[in-house]
Amino acid sequence: MGRPTGVTVIAVLYFIGAAFCLLGGLLFIAGGGFLATIINQQGQAGSSGMAGIMAGLGAAMGIMFLVFGVIDALVGWGLLKLKNWARIVAIVFAAIGACFQLLGVLGSFSHFNLGNLIINLAFLALYAWMISYLIKAPVKAAFQGVQARAATA
After folding, report:
1. CA–CA dist 83, 76 (Å, integer)
2. Mean of pLDDT over the chain
3. CB atoms within 10 A of CB 25
4. How confident is the model at residue 42 (pLDDT cuts 50, 70, 90)?
5. pLDDT: which is higher, 142 or 52
6. Which of 21, 78, 93, 140 has its CA 20 to 30 A from that of 70?
7. Is 40 within 8 Å of 47 (Cβ atoms)?
């Protein structure tokens, strides 16, 4: 049994997410240093402390985004190789994402913004599709079929 098409689509989505995380991480690191330089050049009293805080925050956020990017890339690779751990991690990440999107939908109602509501509902639907697809019996069998063939070889 080959890799289901939906698994390939989900893996590509993980690779796109990884690329955005890696780009965001690099921009946070560079942006924190850039802001620190600008603050230092202002020459006001106490500006060096604020410059250090901005550089540190940029580095910390950048490293966090880089780690998330690596994790997304690993999950995408695991899905392409039909690793069952990647399927489980993708389900857990989709469930966490769905919870946050549900909060976003509720937040869209508190300060009504149609654009935010549509985006939150679209991502909520995407996460729901990912979860429902990855727990289907044929998809689950595809992941377990690779491990059963490896165990008998």
Report:
1. 10
2. 89
3. 21
4. confident
5. 142
6. 140
7. yes
Q: What is the pLDDT of residue 41?
A: 81
Per the listing, tokens 């389900």 go with 91
- Residue 1, SS3? coil
Q: What is the DSSP string of 12-61?
A: HHHHHHHHHHHHHHHHHHHHHHHHHHHHHHH--TTHHHHHHHHHHHHHHH
Write down the pLDDT at residue 145.
76
Judged against a pLDDT cut of 70, whether residue 148 lies above it is answered with: no
Residues listed for the chain: 153
pLDDT of the residue at 1: 59
Rounded to whole angstroms, how far apart are CA atoms 13 and 34? 31
**What separation in angstroms does the CA of 12 have from each of 73, 76, 113, 135, 151?**
9, 7, 30, 18, 28
Q: What angle do CA 7, 10, 13 make, to 5 degrees?
A: 150
Q: Residue for token digits 């890799």?
A: 3
